[in-house]
Known about the structure:
Blueprint: H1 3-21, H2 25-54, H3 81-89, H4 96-117, H5 129-151, H6 155-162, H7 164-171, H8 177-188, E1 196-197, E2 200-201, H9 220-228, H10 230-233, H11 247-259
Antiparallel strand pairs: 1-2
Helix pairs in contact: 3-4, 3-5, 6-8, 8-11, 9-11
Amino acid sequence: xxALDDRRSSFQxxxxxxxxxxxxFYPFAMFHDTVxxxxxxxxxxxLAVVWHETDLLGPLNGxxxxxxxxxxxxxxDWYFYFLFYLLRIFKWPETVILATVGIPTLCLLLLLAMxxxxxxxxxxxxxxxxxxxxAVLVVISMGVLTYRGATAExxxxxxxxxxxxxxxxxxxxxxxxxxxxxxxxxxxSGCTNCHTYLDTGSANLxxxxxxxxxxxxxxxxxxxxxLKCPSCVxxxxxxxxxxxxxxxxxxxxxxxxxxxxxxx
Length: 264
């Protein structure tokens, strides 16, 4: 007897057993599941209303965002911590696609394929070592990545700051205290999230490379005005304003950018 015939005979036995001793899935079990789903949705909606109206479950909104902060570590909701840390592992622009699309999509496709590839009727754990080991490894991996994502510090800024001494040598502004301070601000303010600088950072939203920004001779005041209000100087710019950094910090950043004339 072929595997298909065996499955058909098993299904017929199941149908016969349902007729003799039980009720079919439709409409009985489906009705129960539908009612329970509606109850869960109603409870969630009621909790949302109570939270919004009474703050019984804690504050609805957190403190106001500080646009001038240089120490904030952005984090997603806890159930995305594993993906958040996966992005830190594949941090180079060429490999980000692996963390955002490649690995999650591959895992999802393998999960969807399981009902079509695993046709064995054996369900005892001792007889399914491959499936058990795979499941345990997945759970451990997601647990470790979730923990690391929850406790991750701002490693990106530290990595960028570590490159500053080499920037000073390559760009020729070693000994320029204001340019050095501006480079530190450049690292701490998250500028490399969108801009690249001497092969550091990632290019996003069309942000230009700033390695040779000073070679354009725009001037310190232009850089300050642009940092204060990018869309005022460059209409349509997606860059956020950095006026909250203060005049002194903006001047240091501007000096750093003007000192960046390309590797010597």
